[in-house]
Amino acid sequence: MRSRAAVAFGAGAPLEVTEVELDGPKAGEVLVEIRATGICHTDAYTLSGADPEGLFPAILGHEGAGVVVEVGPGVTALRPGDHVIPLYTPECRECPSCLSRKTNLCTAIRATQGRGVMPDGTSRFRTLDGVPILHYMGCSTFSNYTVLPEIAVAKVRPDAPFDKICYIGCGVTTGVGAVLNTARVEVGAKAIVFGLGGIGLNVIQGLRLAGADMIIGVDINPARKAWGERFGMTHFVNPAEVGGELVAHLVNLTRTPFDQIGGADYTFDCTGNVEVMRAALESCHRGWGVSVVIGVAPAGAEIRTRPFQLVTGRVWKGTAFGGARGRTDVPKIVDWYMDGKIEIDPMITHVLPLERINEGFELMHRGESIRAVVAY
Amino acid sequence: MRSRAAVAFGAGAPLEVTEVELDGPKAGEVLVEIRATGICHTDAYTLSGADPEGLFPAILGHEGAGVVVEVGPGVTALRPGDHVIPLYTPECRECPSCLSRKTNLCTAIRATQGRGVMPDGTSRFRTLDGVPILHYMGCSTFSNYTVLPEIAVAKVRPDAPFDKICYIGCGVTTGVGAVLNTARVEVGAKAIVFGLGGIGLNVIQGLRLAGADMIIGVDINPARKAWGERFGMTHFVNPAEVGGELVAHLVNLTRTPFDQIGGADYTFDCTGNVEVMRAALESCHRGWGVSVVIGVAPAGAEIRTRPFQLVTGRVWKGTAFGGARGRTDVPKIVDWYMDGKIEIDPMITHVLPLERINEGFELMHRGESIRAVVAY
Q1: pLDDT in tens, chain A (376 residues)
Q2: Burial A89-113 (b: 16+ CB within 10 A, else e)
Q3: Are residues B181 and B104 in contact, defined by beta-carbon separation less than 8 angstroms?
Q4: A-B Cβ pairs (cutoff 8 Å, strict)
Q5: Which of B310, B312, B325 to mutate to test the interface with A (most CBs of A within 10 A)?
Q6: Exactly one of A98, A139, A166, A284 is catalytic; which is it?
Q7: Which of A166, A225, B84, B266 has the smallest C-beta neighbourhood within 10 Å, fewest atoms?
Q8: Quick one: DSSP state of residue B343?
Q9: Are the CB atoms for B211 and B188 separated by under 8 Å?
């Protein structure tokens, strides 16, 4: 069949909106009509050419929502008409990782997904001239229709709006999940969020949901202060305004008359900057502070610190897809959105047709959007 | 009163065994007759001059056991005759750290302890000429008699032998506690221990106690293979024999037919070498492996890794005094020793009189001792 898609033909070039050929679902696969997709920094990272694992030509996009159109042989968990969210982190429930009960990082199709193909080793996409086009993160939501492995699809309630819940396919789940699944923040905690973009704001609303007392947002963009406050931030710190002593400033901010040590119970890096990751760790409270790396660092960049930071009780960890199991947890987050426990609508700052998808990237690069969504 | 002591008059010089003057206990303090003390790498680190926080002249030693001789005004938890272990990590049960229920790193007397004095800001030790001598880690067990804050003393059962349980004052608790308190290793786990010295062997017996399935020891000293096996090690790896691909070798060793990802559930650095700390982290299993830093690194040394290691689920943490609360947990570890749940006797390879304490340091530097103990 044919599908409209924004194709990345090469690193650094704008996406090209065109028709592509798409094969139907093979065994264990489903065909999904994507109704909406977010534009995320990870798409931009790969498109820029900075991602050493980036492959071209490919159809990017990994934050979508849509409807199952057709299922391949052997598919049992889904049927045509189901409303779904594609999962770049699948959940097979059978691999060592899924069965460990300790991680969401299912490894069932990791190798082929990394090579831009379906589990059988081939792509479903090609140009009208027959040149194969690769899948991206197993999702390729920048195509109106896409094929996904059954284990990489979360079935969600049918009354949720596509142009909002697509954001649960990455940003919302990553941010909220980092708080609830990875850090397991408790009521009354003090937390610091570094970087108030599309992930950081979701960390903030995750902290509000978890009942944190103090939610400090850190960003060099003063316009993000109002954004953070909109979702529960209690304090804003602009590093440019604290004279280079960011860690000391943050630790001081968390001191109380009783606790003169200071430091946050939990910190979250949502920047991808390794120097910020270090500051996030070192802003943690001695004895128990936990710092969670969410941002994706440039290729080859390394985090560093004195081991004394760990020996005195700080914990350095990371999260991917917010520690969420896609098929199990994503439908719950959709419910939370529909029940008003979390917000999405105000974060969707721009909705564009596919033809204007490159504008969405520009809005993101200029820091003007929180989330730009393409509605098909 | 007078006490025999081994005094560190300066960095890099041998200890001098001499008589010193010791003031009696002030309010909240107790006088303890030290009956035995271990010699630990941390003493050697400070004595060498490499410790930027080292102060001289001082009476080193922090791994002792003895008997309370006299108590100062207001002391309620101890009385003369009590058998005790001095605690370089006190437990006041009233500070923000003790009340957090998340750390053992009591901060009640941290500032004064770091300056080598009692909580009132003064030292109890001086030379016969009246020159003040500093305390060390709040313990100074290289003196036959020493004064300690009440909160820095664990009362233990009276039938336990001093020349064995002194080791619980640091090495045993640090190693066993890292497994039980910090890593919380579960039955069936796979673990790797880097460095099979006085700490590493205790990590190994902690892993045996916790029911780990696979206990891999790593050391460049082949003589340590037999030592590791003595306490429960199931596999030995000499980095010199695996061709520079230590991490890959270790990950491979932990693979199973079902789990082809590989990596340890828990790893422990007992070397203080920051490159080893990195290898320990990167030998952890994707998704959930936890690496615990125990060793003390040289001043200024930094650990580093790609943040991808954390984002894909590995956790980097550290431990001090094995995460043990001194007054609460140390008496239990003494019970475990007396009940045969853990071993100490074979690790005490040398017992020396105070006059030969410098020989104990030499044995340690040459890798000939696991633990040399001074018996008064």
Answers
A1: 999 999 999 999 999 999 999 999 999 999 999 999 999 999 999 999 999 999 999 999 999 999 999 999 999 999 999 999 999 999 999 999 999 999 999 999 999 999 999 999 999 999 999 999 999 999 999 999 999 999 999 999 999 999 999 999 999 999 999 999 999 999 999 999 999 999 999 999 999 999 999 999 999 999 999 999 999 999 999 999 998 799 999 999 999 999 999 999 999 999 999 999 999 999 999 999 999 999 999 989 999 999 999 999 999 999 999 999 999 999 999 999 999 999 999 999 999 999 999 999 999 999 899 999 999 9
A2: bbbbeebbbbebeebbbbbbbbebb
A3: yes
A4: 124
A5: B310
A6: A98
A7: A225
A8: -
A9: yes
- Catalytically annotated residue among B92, B112, B234, B362: B92
| DSSP letters for A185-220 | PPTT-EEEEE--STTHHHHHHHHHHHT-SEEEEE-S
Could you tell me the end-to-end alpha-carbon distance of chain B, in angstroms, rounded to an integer? 17
Closest approach of B307 to chain A, Cα-based (Å): 6
For the question of whether the overall pTM of this predicted structure is more than 0.80, the answer is yes
A40 part of the active site: yes
CA–CA dist B124, B122 (Å, integer): 7
Q: CA of B21, closest CA in chain A: separation in Å?
A: 34
B111 at interface of A, judged by CB pairs closer than 8 A: no
From residue A86, how far is each of A58, A80, B173 by CA, in Å? 17, 15, 49
DSSP-derived letter for residue B93 is: S
Query: Is some CB atom of chain B closer than 8 A to the CB atom of A318?
Result: yes
Q: Does A159 touch chain B (CB under 8 A)?
A: no
* Residue for token pair 């093979």: A26
Contacting residues for A251 by C-beta, under 8 A, at least 6 apart: A262, A263, A283
Which residues in chain A are contacts of B307 at CB distance < 8 A? 274, 277, 293, 295, 297, 301-303, 318
A92 CB within 8 Å of a chain B CB? no
Q: Residue A335: helix, strand or coil by DSSP?
A: helix
- pLDDT of B244 strictly over 80: no
> Does A300 sit within 8 Å of B313, measured CB to CB?
no
For residues A118 and A28, give the distance between their C-alpha atoms in angstroms, rounded to a whole number. Answer: 10
* Residues in B touching A303 (Cβ below 8 Å): 304-307, 310
Which element (helix H / strand E) includes A317?
strand A315-318
Cβ pair B302:A304 closer than 8 A: yes
Q: Is A297 on the interface with B (CB under 8 A)?
A: yes
